[in-house]
Amino acid sequence: MDFYDFPEKLQLLRKSKGLTQEELAEKVSVSRQAITKWESGQAYPDISNLISISEFFKTTIDHLVKDNDSCITSIVKQDSCDSKELIDFLIKAKCNTYAAKGRECASSRPNSHDLRYEEGVFLYLDTYVGGECFSGEEAVWKNNIPIYAMNYSGRVTSSNFSSDFLKAALMAVPNDKPFRGPDFYVENDYFYNCKVCGDLKWHQGYEEIYYKNLQVYECYFHGGIVK
């Protein structure tokens, strides 16, 4: 079992809940000294403690102890030139539309919110309905042929939600997982967490935002290559 980024991940998860080391120790039934050693990398928890931590934070053990979730396939290492081309465009599109507070285009459906980005032979459309509770789809066309689509559905769970913080997290979309935001994103009292299983061909995931120790937003998404 590897522990690449465990100390940093544990500290971020603890702070996302607004807990002190002593409070987290009480939650997972260990001593405060144990938490201190785990977060400093001086020691690592055994499997029973890892299970307690993963259950408390509602995450997987693989996510806690590895640099990336074990179910993630590295997209950037794929040989397909088309995949890299799609990824580069997808990231540009995301960083020039909703996340960048881009202007909406004409609605494609009654009362829908639509955003559009084009570059060369590629076209990206993001369309969603709703506000505090919403559902939508992102899709990419190459030479007017659909090649990728992702559906998402989410909701705001507290009045402390900040759309500006969500957009900042989505602007940090990683190259190896160009679906939503990074694994972790922190700004002041806000904490963003995103978990993804799969790759560009077929993936599903879940993202959430906490304000101090309160969940204020969650969203499920899934998608893949269209043929």
From TrEMBL:
> Lipid metabolism as a keyword?
no
Q: Which residues form the signal peptide?
A: none
Key word DNA-binding present:
yes
The Swiss-Prot or TrEMBL record annotates one GO molecular function as: DNA binding
- Entries under CDD domains matching the protein: HTH_XRE
One Pfam family hit? HTH_3
Q: Which residues form the HTH cro/C1-type domain?
A: 10-64
UniProt keywords, alphabetically: DNA-binding
Q: What InterPro entries is this protein classified in? A: Cro/C1-type_HTH, DUF5680, Lambda_DNA-bd_dom_sf
PANTHER family attached here? DNA-BIDING PHAGE PROTEIN (PTHR46558:SF4), TRACRIPTIONAL REGULATORY PROTEIN-RELATED-RELATED (PTHR46558)
Q: What is this protein called?
A: XRE family transcriptional regulator
Originating organism = Lacrimispora celerecrescens
